[in-house]
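Hi support team,

I submitted a single chain yesterday and got back a structure, but I'm not sure I'm reading the token output correctly. Could someone confirm the output below corresponds to the sequence I sent? I've pasted both exactly as they appear in my results page.

Thanks,
R.
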Amino acid sequence: MRFTRKCLWASFQASLPVLLGYLAMGFAAGVLLTSRTGLGCLWGFLTSATSISGALQFILVDLFCNQTPLFTVALVTLSLNLRYAVYGLPLLERWKGLPLPLKLYMILTLTDETFALEVANQVPEGEDSLTYCFQIAALDHLYWIMGVVSGCAAGAVLPFNSKGIDFAMTALFIVILQDQMKVRLNRLPALLGGVSGLIGLALYPQNMLIPAIAILLTALFALRHSLEEATHE
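Hi R., thanks for writing in. Yes, this is the structure output for that exact sequence:
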């Protein structure tokens, strides 16, 4: 890895949209955490630093309030974050040569937005791709921590009505889905995801994510050749 000011500036510029999104979503999650549990900035920092998952950050509040058993917490965490195992497949070749501690950090910080930027890989000519990807991951991680901690701080000193704030993540995913559906090639995967969710809900209403993700992954692997051919048309 080779760190340069030019590469850092390129990473920061590429991550600016994530900065705006993570500050807003993290702030909402931090307010929700403090207003509903009474936990302060330290817990906001610990949860955001160790679980870089917006959906999980919101769900953790209910899990804490309901005194959910640790096994259930682990199962929910696995269900929510299982998709990142699939995200990592296209990056295996890119991450070759990374020291183990850095590789583990890249795995920890792999989110939807970070994955998109790393796959785009808009590294300046002559700069190191691994360095660029690492800086993207570190910057996005920092943005999320800043958003959650600032939300906790604001929630502790200002009166907030947290009713409905937990819908913020759902609303974000709906907006992203609508934007992705404008691209014709994304419609089949989106349809498969919707059908898989309905089947998962019918099979296991208590935790639909596990069967839904298993069904979706099976369908995507079965249709991967057709999807690859469609992307090259």
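A quick pointer for reading it: The CA atoms of residues 114 and 161 lie 31 Å apart. Let us know if anything else looks off.

Best,
Support desk
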